[in-house]
Batch of 3 targets.
Target 1
Amino acid sequence: MDPLLFPIQELHAHLNGSISAATMKKLMAQKPDLRIQNEMITIDKGKKRNLEECFQMFRIIHQITSRPEDILMVTKDVIREFATDGVKYLELRSTPREEESTGMTKRMYVEAVLEGIKQCKEEGWDIDVRFLVSVDRSRGTAAAKETVKLAEDFLLSTDGVVVGLDLSGNPQAGHGRDFLEPLLEAKKAGLKLALHLSEIPKREDETRLLLGLSPDRIGHGTFLHASESAARDLVELVRQNRTPLELCLTSNLKGETVPSRAQHHFGFWYPLGHPVVLCTDDKGVFATELSQEYQLVAETFRLSDEQVWALCLDAINHIFASSHTKTKLREQWRMLKPTLLE
Ligand code: 5GP
């Protein structure tokens, strides 16, 4: 059985990191002055960059998506591409950005994303899309507070489309403690929290602080299990709370935070029966697809079709949309299972 045929959910996809080569071509044709070459914004098969270089790539991509119409185009293309890959439920995340050169404000940015989601729905794409507003930790506390306010406004006005807040950005920049206050505020307002943590080694103190917020999901958590023995409490805490981990194999390999497929921390958490969700992170930058991530994990860790199916089904438990949506998705999956596993 080919896992490609399973319906899947994508819960960790950064919008600007998810732009395909085809969409980039369209955008670059509109901005020839930027003189950006493909290898500056995507990491091809067999190639790697360190995390710092990956973050430089995002800065280049941001120059290409500087207008609301760019954000609208990439949102629509990214949604269609995920739908074509078999994704039935998608949580996109993105950092609202203001651009002096074009007059785009953070509010206009979010409105463009929401418009893209709405248009795809009107066009009849078979995919349920939600949005997480991202806080970029490299931009500091004041910007984070502003972003949380914006996220709260949209949480109230979008009838379930805006569901949560993501803490991301270069993990070398700033410290988690600078974001505790706005993150707590977001949580109190009813936004679900997806926090990138332990993405790089020796961040135990920061991780402990962020785990203190009881996040709803963890992004990567690459070095959680590799903590010094004095910090084994972190793994225990995550296990006790059964906090799901969003795992992105290709991203971690190409970004050089994990040395080989077999050493990926999926191999630590999955055998413990801990909830994990496979995701792409940045399908454009890392040149991957969600179906491919499932295949890679299945091959590397020798999962049977039944196990892959169970992994896909379990992801529904960890989405941020309402329990009504979860029930609907489970029903959809149940209807598909008999034919797919025959
Ligand atoms: P955007 O938020 O502009 O739609 O997507 C790109 C941004 O997502 C990056 O600038 C960065 O803040 C965040 N991002 C993408 N991939 C990663 C990742 O692997 N780790 C972290 N910490 N942040 C990421």
Target 2
Amino acid sequence: NYSSRKNANAILSTHHNIQKKNSERSLDSTKNTFFYVLSMFPYPSGDLHMGHVRVYTISDSIARYHHLTGKNVIHPMGWDAFGLPAENAAIDNDVSPNEWTKKNIQTMKSQLKTMLVDVDWEREISTCDPEFYKWTQYIFLQLWKSGLIYQKNASVNWDPVDMTVLANEQVDKNGNSWRSGAKVEKKKLKQWFLKISDFSEELLQDLDKLELWPENVKQMQRNWIGKSVGVEFDFSVKTLDKNLTLSVFTSRPDTIFGVSYIAISTEHYLVDKKYLPSDKAESIIDFSKSLSKNSDKNINSKIGIETGLFASHPLDPKKKIPVFIANYVLADYGSGAVMGVPAHDSRDFDFANANGITDFISDSGKSELFCEKGVLKKIPANDIFGGLSSDDAAKRILEICKISGLGRVKTQYKLKDWLVSRQRYWGTPIPFVYCSSCGPTPVAESDLPVKLPVDVSLSKRGGSILNSLEKWKNTKCPSCGNHAVRETDTMDTFVDSSWYYFRFLDNLNNKLPFDPVKINSLMPVDIYIGGIEHSILHLLYSRFITKALQTSSTLKYNSSVLNEVKKGLDNPLSIENTVEPFKRLLTQGMVHGITFKDPETERYLKPNELEYTNESEIPWIKSSKKKPLISYEKMSKSKFNGVDPRSVIAEYGADVARLYILFKAPPQDVLEYDTKSIVGMQRWVAKLFRIVSMVEIKFKPIKDYKILSDRDQWTAQQKETYLLTQKSIKLATDVFENSFTFNTLIASLITLSNNISLLPTVTNPHLDLHISETYALNSLLVMLSPIAPSVSEELFERLHLNNNTYLKTIFAYSWPKLDKSGLVSDKAVCVVQINGKVKFKLEMYSVLFNNETELKEIVLNSELAQRYFIDKNTGKHVPIKKTIIVSKR
Ligand code: ANZ
Ligand code: ZN
């Protein structure tokens, strides 16, 4: 009586205990293999979206599979609960971010449960919980002690609407804020930085160790780290009273004779009244300020100003080179200065043309650009280099400059130190106070956490309200006891998520962020699943924190708490086994929804503007009766193309939704959500229910698996079923271990179920199931269970309950073992000749070759045979005079 529509809730209620049963499997001491499955923890926005459904279906299926293979599986879940959106949403809804977040967590937790996601709720963490952020602060202090955190006055990206500092990556290509869309300005503020740049080389090198990461993600990280080996040249600049050194970094030392000007950034030390020609200094500085106000991200036009200073060339000291301030020179790359070579660099070419620099050498004597390497021209100044190839010239130039001390090899990275200060309320408070006599002073470890006041109301958008909370702000200096003021900035939420996976392994520890002994035995994460959008920052920060904790001498030797732990053990604080936090990475693609647009205006159409005929997928526009433009796009409220997972689960059931998600596309690809194919999955599940109802009364579980090896006597059909079962086992195991192409796994289970459904023993109630068939059905359900846990549980229970072979849950059984010998099909090819000529070939079981009558019948009835044995004119069978069967040839 399976009714697909009711399936979800019916099964949910009969099997509401599936959750419990499986969650009871806290670590089993008899199992010594561990498997840590982690999906990127969600931001508690309040609603589960299809992207969540996708990622948690993948991670849950993988976790359940490893459980079936007998491992201790760690599959935790938590909440990335701090951050700007909570604050803005809270302002809009007039509740505190704390209340808003807590409520959302409750909602999302129950939504996850309806998806049948089986996670270790006893490991649950939330980054906004003082029990969690206490340790974020603790780690911050440890990193500070080991010299990996510092404060610096820096020019930062300032969002004038949200009134906060933005990280570079929160500023888009056009120099606008990712959130408010406002034009980002530059502003100087004292900020906290994490010294990720100390680890540039290690972060780069160790990417090669990550064999199980997608190549594209590793490449993105390499590009982000941006290693560049070049040369630093020293030019000298004569100012009013002294000679100063002006260093430039170049990747093309061979072009040094083509320098026509030098461009420095607006932040360069030479941009100072002390050094600039006194009559023009003020106006130059004003102009420079106006340049720096605009973000350096959007440099379509190259603007600059002459400083009036001249530099002398390291190899041609007589040549006087004008120094410009230019908007395209980055303050924080290389030495913040560029040797301008308009003939060979396109940016320099543009700058020169825009700023009236005409003095440059090019092949034809005209002003044109040649960016490749080539052969150096002979000019008076480079007499000895003329005629050399770019690479040879570069070597010789470097040799000579090394002798004079005016040039050296320099390795440069694009990776910048990590600015973690945020002028926001809803984040981990930075555990420092400012004392007028002691300066910035760390809060004592014993005073952690520095609690975030939660009983607040945020009246207006922007700025941190911590600044206005006098009671909270004013405190005592931990060092001298005098009055001090708390740091009112909070941490970037990427700090929280850079270490949360450690805390999952020891979330109740109240002495330390985690016990390193546990980390050593349970890390790294075996598989980490999440969106490609986190390929760079989150993963890089996590890799950095792991390496920083490893090398942090403070964590190892200086902390009082840690020293206590250390006493009993050899080297208890070493997390040295964990060089990299995530062994394997699986990045899942986005879920796109069907999107309708007006063909004339390209306006997104709302569902109520459309009209459907005959339940077809393609609607008409009500008002114009025209066909809309159809595309699949990222689901979003503004495109009216979102699909609410709650309604999908309510209509089709969690299992069908999960099956569909995994069947529709391999995890890495974009998934185009459509209702047509979800119905396909629903029908297949219904078919499984039909198969089970046909056999459940007569089902006899296998007691003795040895019988399976006794396959010689089986019929061809039984062998075929066994072969299909083994093929599925092989594929399914490989999918869960390596390829994660769940679509192929489901396709193979569908093939197997089709085979089973046609078996005479299944369709005829009076025939008993053969052992190969029992085995196939049993294996099918176990292989299905990681993906569709409640359906397979229900069907499995029906088969086993009458036989006392039901162990309370399907998850108490084992993943089927592959029988390699079962994969060898004993099929052979039968070559059919007519009048001595080969006509066609048929593949069939070799046992058939022993039975002439059966063989003849199969050959003559085969589809191919019809072409040859039927008279085209009469449509009748051509009589066969003589048949010869030659076996084993
Ligand atoms: C002269 C030159 C000639 C350059 C030429 C390139 C081609 P990568 O390879 O990415 O490291 N550069 C150096 N510092 C800069 C800064 N602070 N802001 C903007 N540009 C800067 O890039 C190195 C090149 O970027 C350097 O080599 C320099 O231009 C420029 F035919 O020097 B080159
Ligand atoms: Zn003090």
Target 3
Amino acid sequence: MRTQVGIVGAGPGGLLLAHLLQREGIESIVLETASRAAVEGRVRASVLEYGTARLLVQAGVGARMEREALVQHGIVLRFGGVPHRINFAELVDGRGVVVWGQHEVVKDLIAARLDAGGDIRFDVSDVALADIESKRPSIRFRHGGENHVVECDVIAGCDGFHGISRGAIPGGALQVFERLYPFAWLGIMADAPPPADELVYAHHPSGFALASMRSQRISRLYIQVSPGEDLAYWSDARIWDELDQRLVGPDGGFTLAEGPVLQRGITLLRSFVVEPMRYGRLFLVGDSAHVVPPTGAKGMNLAIADAAVLARGLVALFKTGDTALVDHYSEVCLRRVWAAEHFSWWMTRLLHRGPFDTPFDQRRQLAELDRLVSSPAAAAALAEAYVGRPLEHA
Ligand code: FAD
Ligand code: DHB
């Protein structure tokens, strides 16, 4: 088997890369260990930056999102029991974010690829990369009970944090930057209307809480818990009670409608970056190269931005032989990645309660939150980072 770009992983990064390349007549094969149903059913991120949403529309995979997704022109910061709105429309030229589940993005990308006759192999196993330093790198894998090898010009490692691509690079060639946080998020999806029209990020003495949504009828709600927490100890009643305390409190402001819990899970918080994001003919895309804690809602946006930068570089490489863009791939992506790493770390530190935090730390957080809602300059900096910087290629 032979292709121009071998793509490992069918998350948003890998699928968008395949789609953008296909539109330019560049061949690729996408290899994915999970089943199509598992990939399309994974509950993960939901906030699309302004530039991400525009890119999906420009790439012809945004029609359903434009029809069905919720556009948001602000967020609510809740602290000291009181909600405060950050108005993006005023602060960042009317730009907003789009709330649209990652699995919906993935569904549309898979449909677009299959409609165009593109190759995605789900349910593969034993994926291994070879000769990534050479001009003929290859990917070995098992599919349908048989061993296969696909020879490529270039490999894109889009296989997430736990994938194999990053590990194919000799250890000494990568610099690793990492921070683990002493807390986790317990998230639920509930068949209940969201408590507010906009996302609510709450600072509370018991810990952070977030009210998000998937539609006007489905809520996505999170509470900060300790990293070793066992879901078995969290009954629905206990989760709703904790959400109510942190998001509503005694003086209300809005009500939290309860409903059947459709899905629940615990996510650990981590910051992680490897540099560079390229080794020989292997390019790392998205979570395989960097992870952010979810507080800033940046993970999927970064994967999509990496894919867009790489697609542009590969189009130049295959069409004209020009290597300038691929040679700068890592440098261009890392600038955006580190901005998002900083923002996500900052939002996390602003809103969570650390196990060793003192009353001083709580007052410091409240002072910073107060500054954000009383200084237009501080609010604008938050809004600008949340809505996201323009994509490099746009
Ligand atoms: P992924 O979406 O991880 O896709 C990688 C794909 O590669 C997967 O389909 C995987 O099955 C496949 N794969 C793995 N190994 C192999 C292999 N060896 N061979 C072939 N395929 C392989 N971000 C937010 O902003 N907000 C959130 O609330 C949020 N929640 C999250 C919850 C969880 C549990 C996780 C893990 C992440 C969450 N994120 C969140 C982050 C966001 O979802 C990711 O940043 C985004 O999915 C990155 O996209 P990607 O394409 O790089 O990787
Ligand atoms: C969601 C997740 C986030 O991490 C975030 O910051 C905002 C929204 C969500 O799942 O809806």
